[in-house]
Specification:
Low-confidence stretches: 256-265
Shape: flat
Oligomer: single chain
Helix content: 25-40%
Strand content: 15-25%
Length: 701
């Protein structure tokens, strides 16, 4: 944790500018909280109208304090807030939390005031939190520089969870949900408009708290992806799961996020790719964060996804099997010896295969859970355990069931969750620290998340060799020019120089050359105009397919050459290319994202790629194995392995194209804005992949 962030999270002294005697007012709550929750540092209320605030000496101004405080809360509005921040910077305050709103979220004028205020603070060596923030809270030391009413509604308890959020409301909601599940929370920090300190900064600091075992984030924009990536790498090193809510999934959500924080929301598919690449698990809302928190805190890191379902109801066994398939948790195939062992402990009419139906015999023999669980635990095929108790009551020794489950979990360390909708049944399991849910959907969803996130955190990305900038004028360098696009011949040549297989073609500047090219590439051929001024040729009728003769190729050259002149476009040539057939058309693209840098896209290709998008996004570096995993997420994934007697596609060759395109845009060192390769014709396994059309866009043009 940097010294400046330390001054906010572990201050020795705190000034409250705009302090109030009333503990229910924004200016009164932080003082009340710090005194109530054990802050051991010095508190300096600043209120020129009072000599004392909540039993503490009050000061007329910041200048009147006996020392420069580590942390100051600015709880005055408008111009007074700006003046107060400047006074803090001049006084040597290390960190200032600006509660006041009406800055970046209010429009461009407010954004400029906010930016200027932050520049002055940083120039003086002071970090700024907010403005428009609900504040910071560290329950590990009682430093509560915030005013959330949730700390009254749900009393705090220090614990191993950190919450960092742009939104004060979402930070309070996550805190309340976690405390409602009986979980302790140490850090609850809201960054507001992020004029200076961002969620990434705070996540970095909280991730270095050795007592934090789970980090929850709420973001509307990712302002510092490089720092967040470093935080995620540090978190993986110390086995700290990060679970994030990223709002602004839709266009409407992005617009709302912009008005809320004064920031632009990031493009959602790129956000997904960023989180996956760095081992961060994304969920929809704070409810989902709180739901899975207890399972993470158990320290469970399953080796696989194979599930064992145990119930006292045959119907629940059937439903559990259905739900396991929906969540991608295959039922564990228990060994013959395990099945025999289980059967020996159950009545003859019970089911010893997975799902295991203990039946109503549980009513007369409360030890059945204790008998069955150890018998199954020894089977190496069992990774995850789900106990579903749809009904129990008088006559059932639920306390014994819970004790047996707790002993099993403690002895094996394997994840086990319970579904019990009856409060009287759920309570004993919860009391013994077993994650317990009201239904199987929640229970299995948490197990699936835990297994998937564990696998994601274990993934590694081998760095690509550092690409040297191509020598100017070489085939692998971007051609000289000022136009926005390369023409198609230049685009294909650049791809080929970087190891991408491209279709056989010739660039012709006369009808005679077109005639000769047709003979060289073979029939049938494609004839298409080549001009950087016309990047989308088909829209102008400048692409002709299945050309079956040299005369037709020559005639098309003349027609397209004339059409380019009529359009006022540069007449750079006409391409005559082989018509390459494949089993399926794919698209590969790359672009420079303004936030994340190089981003690569692969998916279903062809004419309707924009109307019916089916794509996956990757962030470099990645290898062919990661590309193939991404391809498996597409709607067309079932086609990759071959259907209806068709052979499987050459996924390996397609993946190699994707890696090569990714390396090209990285090697472009910011000179390439985008690469559009569509279609890539992919053959059957072993037949390869071939790029038949490409468009490269220069950056900054």
């Amino acid at each position: 944790m940097s010294d400046l962030l330390e001054s906010a999270l572990n201050p020795k002294s705190v000034a409250v500018i705009g302090a109030s005697e009333n503990i229910h007012k924004i200016g009164g709550r932080p003082i009340h909280y710090m005194q109530k929750f054990g802050f051991a540092g010095r508190i300096y209320p600043i209120n020129p109208q009072r000599e004392e605030v909540q039993g503490l000496k009050s000061y007329a101004s910041l200048a009147a304090l006996p020392e420069a405080p580590d942390l100051a809360l600015v709880i005055v509005g408008g111009e007074k807030a700006v003046t107060a921040v400047d006074e803090c910077a001049a006084r040597g305050v290390k960190s200032a939390v600006v509660i006041a709103s009406g800055f970046g979220e209010a429009g461009e004028e407010g954004r400029e005031v906010q930016r200027a205020m932050a520049r002055r603070a940083r120039a003086a060596g002071m970090r700024l939190y907010g403005p428009n923030t609900q504040g910071l809270a560290n329950f590990g030391n009682g430093a509560i520089a915030g005013f959330s009413t949730m700390f009254v509604e749900v009393p705090p308890a220090d614990g191993p969870i950190g919450v960092v959020s742009q939104s004060g409301g979402m930070s309070a909601m996550a805190y309340g949900l976690l405390r409602g599940r009986g979980l302790g929370v140490r850090h609850v920090h809201a960054t507001g408009n992020e004029a200076d300190v961002t969620v990434s900064d705070m996540a970095w600091a909280v991730a270095h708290d050795p007592d934090v075992k789970l980090l929850l984030l709420y973001l509307e924009t990712i302002a510092d992806p490089e720092l967040l990536a470093r935080t995620a790498a540090h978190a993986r090193e110390r086995d700290l799961p990060i679970v994030a809510v990223k709002a602004g999934r839709s266009a409407s959500g992005q617009k709302a996020a912009s008005s809320h924080t004064g920031s632009l929301a990031n493009e959602d598919r790129a956000v997904d790719a960023f989180f996956r690449h760095h081992g961060i698990w994304r969920v929809r809302d704070p409810h989902a964060q709180a739901l899975a928190a207890e399972a993470y805190l158990k320290g469970w890191r399953p080796e696989g996804r194979r599930l064992v379902v145990i119930s006292n109801s045959g119907a629940s066994c059937v439903m559990g099997a259905d739900a396991s398939e929906e969540f991608g948790l295959p039922l564990a195939e228990l060994s013959a010896s395990t099945r025999e062992n289980v059967a020996s402990r159950l009545p003859g009419f019970a089911t010893a295969t997975n799902p295991i139906d203990i039946t109503a015999a549980l009513l007369s023999n409360s030890g059945l859970f204790g008998d069955v669980l150890p018998a199954v635990a020894a089977d190496p095929a069992a990774d995850l355990f789900f106990i579903n108790i749809p009904v129990a009551g008088a006559g059932y020794d639920v306390e014994a069931f819970a004790n047996d489950t707790a002993r099993f979990e403690a002895a094996t360390g394997k994840p086990v969750v319970v579904a019990a909708w009856q409060a009287s049944v759920a309570a004993p399991f919860k009391a013994r620290g077993i994650p317990t849910f009201g239904n199987e959907t929640e229970a299995l969803g948490v197990l699936a998340q835990l297994a998937s996130h564990t696998a994601l955190m274990r993934e590694s990305h081998a760095p690509w060799p550092e690409a040297l900038a191509p020598a100017p004028g070489s085939a692998s360098a971007l051609p000289q020019g000022t136009g926005r696009f390369l023409n198609e011949a230049q685009s294909l040549a650049l791809l080929a120089a970087h190891g991408v297989p491209v279709v056989a073609h010739r660039l012709c500047r006369s009808a005679a050359e077109a005639r000769d090219a047709w003979g060289a590439v073979g029939a049938p051929a494609v004839v298409k105009a080549c001009s950087a001024d016309v990047p989308h040729k088909s829209e102008h009728g400048l692409v002709a397919l299945r050309i079956g003769s040299a005369d037709a190729a020559a005639a098309l050259f003349d027609a397209q050459w004339a059409k380019l002149a009529a359009l006022g476009a540069a007449q750079e040539g006409v391409l005559v290319a082989a018509m390459h057939k494949g089993r399926h058309e794919f698209m590969v693209g790359a672009r420079l994202d303004p936030v994340f840098g190089p981003v690569v896209v692969v998916g279903d290709g062809g004419t309707y790629v924009e109307a019916l998008p089916d794509v996956a996004v990757l962030l470099p570096p990645f290898d062919t194995a990661e590309v193939k995993k991404a391809l498996d997420t597409l709607r067309i994934a079932p086609l990759l392995g071959g259907v209806r007697g068709e052979p499987p596609l050459d996924v390996e060759a397609l993946a190699a194209v994707v890696v090569a395109v990714g390396r090209l845009i990285v090697a472009g060192a910011g000179s390439i804005a985008s690469i559009d390769v569509n279609p890539v014709m992919v053959g059957a396994a072993g037949e390869g992949a071939m790029v038949v059309d490409a468009l490269v866009e220069r950056a900054g043009s």
